[in-house]
Amino acid sequence: MKKILVDAGTFYTKVYVLRQAFQNGGEGSADKSYEFYGRTFFPTLVGRAGDIDKSRIYYEHDGEWFSIGYDCSSSLELEQIVKAFEDDGVGTGSRRLILKKIIYDFADHKDDLAIDVVVSDPRGIQVFEEIRAQLHDREIEITALRGYDRRRIKKEVKIRFRLLSAGEAITGFLEKIKKDFRTALVVDVGYHRTKIYLVECGKGVALFQIGDFGVSFFYEKIVNLCSEKKITDNHFLWLVKQIEFGYKQVEVGGEDNRGVQKLGGLMTGDCTREYDISLVLDNVRWDLNKDIKRLTTDILTSYYTNTTTWAEMLVVTGGGASLNGDILCHSLVEDGYRFHDVYIEKQPIYTMLEGACRGLNTLQANRTPI
Known about the structure:
The chain has ten helices and 17 strands. The protein has helices at 70-73, 78-84, 92-106, 122-135, 166-177, 216-228, 236-244, 278-307, 321-334, 351-359; strands at residues 2-8, 12-22, 30-43, 46-48, 57-61, 64-68, 111-119, 138-146, 151-165, 183-189, 194-200, 204-211, 249-253, 265-267, 272-276, 313-317, 341-344. The strands form three sheets. A nine-stranded mixed sheet has the order 3-2-1-7-9-8-5-6-4, with helices on both faces. It has a five-stranded mixed sheet with strand order 12-11-10-16-17. Strands 13-15-14 form a three-stranded antiparallel sheet. Strand 14 and strand 15 (272-276) form a beta hairpin. The longest helix has 30 residues, at 278-307. Mean pLDDT is 83; it is low at 255-269 and 362-370.
């Protein structure tokens, strides 16, 4: 028996897997606790297979083969990848294919799986409710094609499927980092949207708002700069990863060796250039902060008006936490907003899933991965 928790984001799909523990290591003596089994993340990309590549794995759906995640991204042009992330999120068919990849990666043949998907918006709820109706309490077959030997691999699994609210996951995460909090404001800076939760200990989410802005604002600016410089031989996902890591100079492809300039490049031996984006990033961070701060102060004011209580703790998470967390805290303090505790999650990939694990009371503390 395995529990698979999925945070199906617009940009990354994150996966956290637990398996049922056994007493004294014996297969026939399962207890009711679970232990960490594995985790991964990959871009939320799905594409039809062209020529079979030996280094990839393909997944069958309705008689066609598809590549998923990084396997898919390596065969797409920059503009195709950017466009794929412009939409509100992939549809039911693509999400089901992504689940097939996850099952193939972590399940054994004839496994029993409990799949929990964290959802935070009406579109996601609709898509995964449709998938739940197709998969819940059923046995399904997954077929994959291994590129290097053209071998078809099949796995049969039985699935139980349910949805978890992002609010429950956020509450679980807060309890993990600070067990005795009373009220906390959580700012989740995502790819297209920023979600803000006002959480009360023991009660859950009291207020929730979504803003239609996120870190895609950064990447659009950098991609436009690349276009102006006629840099087309560039990998969007690698560009994103460098920005997430906070690099002031990003490596891009190209054949131009005209030297170094601000927002120009330094030629390296493998026909790549390093572009200094520090000034652009700083400008974009402050522009994005205006929107995040406005939404944050709105929900703080609303909560205080209704309860005459102030949020004691500020938590910033999501893909934009490392880029905008410090700026948001600084600007709030400058305007007179005070918090007893501030927590900026610099490695936010598994925040939701670790919180969901705690909420489900399935992780034993001594088995949590470092």
